[in-house]
Design a protein that fits this description.
Layout: E1 2-6, E2 14-18, H1 46-57, H2 61-68, H3 70-77, H4 81-99, H5 102-109, H6 111-128, H7 133-162, H8 167-196, H9 199-204, H10 206-220, H11 242-271, H12 276-288, H13 290-303, H14 308-327, H15 333-343, H16 346-356, H17 361-393, H18 397-417
Antiparallel strand pairs: 1-2
Protein name: CP family cyanate transporter-like MFS transporter
Keywords: Membrane, Transmembrane, Transmembrane helix
Pfam family, one: MFS_1
């Protein structure tokens, strides 16, 4: 297998396997030199781009749809505020735990099957959580978030392997679909709940989007068949790498802030005098800012030698939104929401940074798994502590101050992660 290393100002440094001319075969069983197809990259077709986009669109509604009707769900199942805090922390906690399994599933079964199973798991969880009672809500959310966790780790690897010379564009499509799905979940769910008179129907309908993603992925995801004339480079652990830890902490802190916002923003706005439907719409607007930032920032970031300044600016803009919610939440709730939404634009950058700080798909997979598994464990503390402080103090001040402190630390680690180096 010949490795061609391309260095171009418009592309990331990547090493991509290129088979020699004539290596493709329609009958792999008849050629003993051909590798098992499950160990190769997926074929980078337009249909695969659509599959990635629809899969990404499923990775946020499970969280934002629940946040927009959280108080209704809590009251309906007779649960406490502590239960609600645990529920909002569950996605990030589950993302961290289940994300560890993603590289193993990839190596054993290949990306096509691993992502397909992740989407099936997500869809099953979305259906389960609306059956009955607090345990079903927790169990279904746990299952759905396990599927999301696998998708979070595996889809960036699909993009890195299958679209190496369109990395910025396809990452932008992925991030735009991710944000769009989250915004749709927040905006539509309260209206569906009001129209149907049931939060169960409003949450359960998102399983249909999961079914669509499973079907499209099963058609569009196909492994290439390539000749292998030497073994692949062994995977290495990045646990002793300082840059890998910097990226991981940066990922965890930005995810902590994002999941606090996605889990609790409607409740903060409601106490500031915003009605529930409008609060859900504001969360949708906040999440929707990820569409333009997701489409525009990754292509821009891959052309920049350093992403540090861009990361710090977006982080500080988001911090201004948190300050507004802390100091004068009822004065301009939409403005604070918009600023917070800009701050969440850091997420497309951290996903891009994972690719930029690595030399090849093997390191991308390792860094993605490390950053997302350990990072989401860091993030899980945020929504839980945010709700817990609200219950202990009777207000949002201590909770929002906590988020401001995390935002300041995020800016420091984001600046370091954005510097032009590789693990």
């Amino acid at each position: 297998m010949t490795l061609h290393r391309r260095r171009n100002a418009r592309d990331v440094k990547i090493a991509t396997p290129t088979p020699p001319r004539g290596a493709w075969s329609a009958h792999p069983a008849g050629n003993s030199a051909l590798a098992s197809s499950r160990g190769t990259a997926l074929v980078g077709t337009s249909l695969l781009v659509l599959g990635v986009a629809l899969a990404a669109a499923n990775l946020r509604p499970a969280v934002t749809s629940l946040a927009s009707v959280l108080e209704q769900v809590r009251g309906s199942v007779g649960a406490s505020h502590a239960w609600a805090s645990a529920l909002t922390a569950l996605p990030a906690l589950c993302f961290g735990a289940a994300g560890v399994l993603a590289p193993r599933l990839n190596r054993r079964f290949g990306l096509a099957r691993a992502v397909g199973w992740a989407l099936a798991l997500l869809t099953a969880g979305l259906g389960l959580r609306v059956l009955d009672g607090a345990p079903a809500v927790l169990g279904g959310t746990l299952l759905a978030c396990a599927g999301i966790a696998l998708g979070n780790v595996l889809l960036p690897v699909v993009i890195k392997q299958s679209f190496p010379h369109r990395l910025g564009v396809v990452t932008g499509i992925y991030m735009g679909a991710l944000a769009g799905g989250g915004a749709l979940g927040a905006a539509v769910t309260p209206s569906l709940a009001d129209a149907m008179g049931s939060w169960r129907f409003a949450l359960g309908v998102w399983a249909l989007l999961g079914v669509a993603a499973v079907l499209l992925w099963s058609v569009g995801a196909r492994h290439a068949e390539v000749v292998v004339d030497q073994p692949p480079r062994p995977r290495r652990s990045l646990l002793g790498n300082r840059l890998a830890w910097t990226v991981t902490v940066f990922f965890g802190l930005q995810a902590l802030v994002a999941y606090v916002i996605m889990g609790w923003l409607p409740e903060v706005l409601i106490e500031a005098g915003v009605d529930r439907t409008t609060a859900g719409l504001y969360l949708a607007i906040c999440t929707l800012f990820g569409v333009p930032t997701g489409l525009l920032l990754p292509p821009l970031a891959v052309r920049m030698r350093s992403q540090s300044l861009l990361i710090v600016v977006l982080t500080l803009i988001g911090g201004l939104g948190i300050v507004g919610l802390l100091v004068a939440p009822s004065a301009a709730p939409l403005a604070w929401t918009v600023l917070a939404g800009f701050g969440m634009g850091v997420f497309p950058l951290v996903i891009t940074v994972i690719a930029l700080r690595t030399e090849d798909p093997a390191d991308t997979a390792s860094l993605s798994a490390m950053a997302q598994s350990l990072g989401y464990l860091i993030a899980a503390c945020g929504p839980f502590l945010f709700g817990l402080l609200r219950g202990l103090t009777g207000g949002w001040t201590a909770s929002l101050v906590l988020v401001l402190v995390v935002t300041a630390i995020q800016a420091v680690f984001g600046y370091a992660a954005g510097r032009p180096r590789t693990v």
